[in-house]
Amino acid sequence: MKVIYLNSHPIQYYSPLFKALNKELEEEFEVWYCSKHGHKGQGDKLFGAGIKW
């Protein structure tokens, strides 16, 4: 069986959860996003850094 987590866009705060699920689940685990937001990379003025997922 494959477990798929569907999310609207990448959210960095979810990364620890996804890593834990991937480690603990016996099934294949994937995260799918419904947006290409962050795919090409962009600057973040608030953090003063470039972000690419």
Description:
The structure is a single chain. The protein is of the alpha+beta class. The protein has one domain (2-51). 19% of the residues lie in helices and 34% in strands. It contains 1 helix and 4 strands; from the N terminus they run βαβββ. The chain has one helix at residues 15-24, and strands at residues 2-7, 28-33, 42-44, 49-51. The chain has a two-stranded parallel ribbon. The chain has a two-stranded antiparallel ribbon with strand order 3-4. The protein is elongated, with a radius of gyration of 13 Å. The model has no long low-confidence stretch (mean pLDDT 82).
The rough form would be described as elongated
Query: From the alpha-carbon coordinates, what is the Rg to the nearest angstrom?
Result: 13 Å
The ordered string of helix (H) and strand (E) elements is EHEEE
How far do the termini sit from each other? 27 Å
Poorly predicted spans: none
Q: Counting H and I runs of at least 4 residues, what is the number of helices?
A: 1
Strand order of the largest sheet: 1-2
Structure summarized in a few sentences:
This protein has 53 residues and is an alpha+beta fold. 19% of the residues lie in helices and 34% in strands.
What attributes characterize this protein structure?
two-stranded antiparallel sheet, 4 strands, two-stranded parallel sheet, 53 residues
